[in-house]
Amino acid sequence: MTGPTAPALPAARTRLRVRGTVPAGGLPLGVRLGAGFLALVVLAAVLAPLIAPYPPDAIDLDASLAGTGHAHWLGTDASGQDLLSRVLHGARTSLVAPLLLLALAALLGVTLGTLAAWRGGWVDTLVSRLTDVMYAFPGLLFVVLIIAVFGAGMTTSVLALALAYAPTIAKYTRSVALAERTKPYVDAYRVQGMGGARICAFHLVPNLSRAVVGYLVVLFGEALMSLATLSYLGFGAQPPSSDWGLMVQEGQAAVVQGAPLPALVPGTAIAAVVVAFNIVGVWAADRLGSRR
Amino acid sequence: MLGRLLRRLAGLVATLFAASFVIFAAVYAAPGDPAVFLAGGRDKLTPEKLAAVREQYHLDEPLVVQYGRWLWDCLHGDLGRSFKYTDQVADLLTSRLPTTLELVAYATVLFVVFGVGAGIVAAVRRGWADQAVVGGTTLAASVPNFVAAIGLVALFGVRLGWFPVTGQGSGFTGTLHHLTLPAVSLALGALAVISRVTRQSMLDAAASDHVAAARASGVPERTLVRRHVLRNALGPIVTMCGLVTAGMLAGTVVVETAFGLSGVGSLLVNAINTHDFPVAQAVLLLMVTGYVVVTNLVDLVHPLLDPRVRAERSAA
Amino acid sequence: MTDTHGHRPAAGAQPAAGARMPSARAEQPGAEPAPAGSAAAEPEAAARGASGGAEPLLDIVGLGLELPGAARPLLADVSLRVRPGEVVGLVGESGSGKSTTAKAALALFPDGARPTGEVRVAGTDVLALRGEALRAHRARTVAMVHQDPRAALNPVRRVGDFLTERLALAGFAGNRAAVRGRAVELLAEVGLPDPARRLRQRPHELSGGMLQRVVIAGALAVGPRLLLADEATSALDVTTQAEILDLLRTVRREHGTGLLFITHDLQLAAAYCDRVLVMYAGRLVEHRPAEALFTDPRHPYTRGLLECSPTLDEAAAGVRPIPGRPPSLADAFPGCPFTARCPGAEPECERWQPRPVPLPGDGMAACRRLAEYEPDGAESGGADAGTDARGAAAGAEGVERAGADPSPGPVAVSAPARRDAAPGPVSGTTEGGAG
């Protein structure tokens, strides 16, 4: 309303490759706060070794379950490990793992979805059936089955979740790709004699990326929550990791003893990042024009 | 109508077959000897135990036969034997199932009452109430339920001491008292979905011409909302409630662990952490069956609520 | 004050003329008095008798409706009245504001719209009603019959539930059996076969014509004094349409209700109604006794509407669609809104603020060049309105007349007749429109 505010979020704009959509009334306050918070979290994760007051695994039994104070800003856990340091270090796995998960799921899902849309016929039917079967299954149970078979661990968790997410992404990609396929430029490349794989890889998929990225952004919060849940159940990150989900599990025993900080500090971190990401994600998805 | 029912039933059975086969065959996907895997790993493994496993699972026969026998046994209530608890798995399940079902039922009541209620308020009041409901429930949905569980325990269990922090209680009020915090943390995430579906469905219903016609005829607003808007919006709401309830069977895995409830969900977590695969298999089978059956039931209920859908489907 | 249509700035230029229109109408019937309350009497007699002395059921004076964001008002300077037992037609293209006008009787306006002017139903100032009083007004005094009965009924509730709800609104007291009995009576009254079974059926099990009967039964349940029929027959096939028209007429005769009949079909309105008002872009452009409108339309738009219906006698060449498109809310008009599509438009028309110009006898038209079309029309229009030929024509046989008796007839006859009789301007205009 008060004119274009293009410089309001240059970082986000270039990162997400938002083209030509200058917000008319500036960014909503919630989006600004969310984006700011996320930027801080990413910065803290990158700089964790520099800014954390203690090593994440420094055990100090004398300071067991200390409250907030000068020595330990956010208190300590049962083994006297500094919670602030652990949360800062934990941000790395807690943020990178969902990113990896989504990348893997996107690779699988986009490939399957594009294949289904491009080839049609039995490939399409197969992919559709596969996604239907996955939809008939609660996702968490599928992941738990894989973990039951292959054993707990971060790698298994990420792979299992990637497999669970892939059908959703495939279904979405298929719907977007079907529409994109009918556009004239595809025919033009075909007339030039370009192979199907080449058109898909170099022209079709890049044109889908906007919509797909928008979709992935919205999935990120969910991916982070799912991974944290697995770690909390003991299926994901294993000690001595400072993964937030695992920290909550480790700190849970102290809650009943009246020391909620060891569980609440990482728990709040998870919740805050998910909330911020959902606010920014929904906004970004709208900007990227992804249909849901 | 009957043909549709049969088709649906056939689909349900097919899904269950596929799911049970995946759950059964997962044993073969595990690295190493399936017998060792089923027995729970190499430590403390005796040749007798291994032989018992081979015998129980008919591991010497072809895969299809094994699956057939396993399924046959499962259908007859013989879910195998836990090599950790040295107990019949079926007995373990029956002793733990009531807690899980109570928890899911309690959480369902909570999210239906508050979720649908909030959705109605958002749709009818609009304005700030709408924003508050959407904002509040989105926030609630962004908190993983194990974090919510711990927050609730810290505040209402430890700090205020209103609710017990562990155990399932006895008697109706005791159970209610013990299960309140777990049910709340289980229901919290569902509030956003349900309230949003309710809100949207009601707004769609309220935009119909017949609502305008009824309003023009001087039908009081309260009656209008109840008889013409909510009643017509019920289809999607009930469907979504059913789906969420079905999904909660899986959600108990987390909440039961967080509150130390000995239900089916925590049984699954323990089974996996102690490599007790037969138990994990049985719980997964039970949960998937429950999920598939509930979602299909919901699909059957929908046309009963909406004669339009019924007419469409019987015409098709 | 309620009697004049002239107390507005727009029409202020000719206050006397504006006031003459309704009073002229009132004087004529006064000459042959009929009992005011005789609802069972012939409809014409009832209409005339009531209009002679009784206050009008619906009296809209200078109604305007502004919508924020729209380039022009939804309604401007709309005045109309419906007397007990009278059928008044409201005709126009979609978007002309006819439904909006009718809904004003229920104080139903689009969100954010600001009404000005006056709307009285049976003496009550509707625009001043709020809350419970407004709800009671909508529930009991006025009933509306909508275009698509399928959309007007809640698809998931039974027909019986619908009627029960309406009966409850009317304050019908009694146990379930009594309510049920009354519902069956109502369905029988609107001519639905096997009414008891209908109560248990849902809308999707009934045909459109049956549903419209149900809707009318629902309207009758509250015993309204005024019935608004908003394109009530447009969505029905021809034979059903005739049946519903007949039913509405019966209802009006037996209950003495006033009927505001909204349609886009000018031929139908002229055949069915006592008086017809034509709307364009939220304004009244012509208001005439039905017969006069039909035989001697005065506003170029009315004429255009008549000429764009195909007739039996004239070949396809005789059909002249009105050029251009109906105006949207985004179009603003400094002058007469019909200028762009009018065959006889002159540059001054674009600046001429439309106002009702009274016609001799009864009625008005809002056209700047009306005076130029005047000399001949004055006599024929006055004669038509004065004679009671209309009475017979628009009587109980009106429906059959619309269907069987060639309603094309008058058009075919009147079109050339008018051209012959009228001096230069008219024939020139018509040719201009054709060419």
The residue-averaged pLDDT of chain C reads: 73
Compute the CA-based radius of gyration of chain A: 22 Å
> What's the SSE pattern of chain C?
HHEEEHEEHEHHHHHEHEHEEHHEEHHHHH
Q: In terms of per-residue confidence, which ranges of chain A show pLDDT below 50 for 5 or more consecutive residues?
A: 1-24
Instruction: Report the CATH superfamily of chain A.
Output: MetI-like
Q: Specify the helix fraction band of chain A.
A: over 70%
Morphology call of chain A: elongated
Question: Strand tally of chain C, please?
Answer: 12
- CATH class wording of the largest domain in chain C: Alpha Beta
Q: Name the CATH architecture of the largest domain in chain C.
A: 3-Layer(aba) Sandwich
Describe the model.
The complex is a heterotrimer of chains A (292), B (316) and C (435). With 292 residues, chain A is mostly helical. Chain A has one domain (75-291): MetI-like fold. Chain A has helices spanning 10-15, 29-51, 83-119, 121-135, 139-150, 154-181, 184-191, 196-232, 244-256, 261-287. In chain A, α2 (29-51) packs across α10 (261-287). Chain A is elongated. Mean pLDDT of chain A is 80; it is low at 1-24. Chain B has 316 residues and is mainly α. Chain B folds into two domains: 2-75, no CATH class; 89-315, MetI-like fold (Orthogonal Bundle), CATH 1.10.3720. In chain B, 81% of the residues lie in helices and 1% in strands. Chain B has 13 helices and two strands, in the order ααααββααααααααα. Chain B has helices at residues 2-29, 34-39, 47-57, 63-75, 89-125, 127-141, 145-159, 171-206, 209-216, 221-259, 264-273, 277-305, 307-315, and strands spanning 81-82, 87-88. Chain B has a two-stranded antiparallel sheet with strand order 1-2. In chain B, β1 and β2 (87-88) form a beta hairpin. The model of chain B has no long low-confidence stretch (mean pLDDT 85). Chain C is of the alpha/beta class and 435 residues long. Chain C has two domains: 7-122 and 225-416, Rossmann fold (3-Layer(aba) Sandwich), CATH 3.40.50.300; 151-223, no CATH class. Chain C is built from 18 helices and twelve strands. In chain C, a hairpin with an 8-residue loop joins β1 and β2. In chain C, α1 packs across α2. In chain C, 50% of the residues are buried. Classes of the chains: A mainly alpha (292), B mainly alpha (316), C alpha/beta (435). Chain B: Residues 1-25 form the signal peptide.
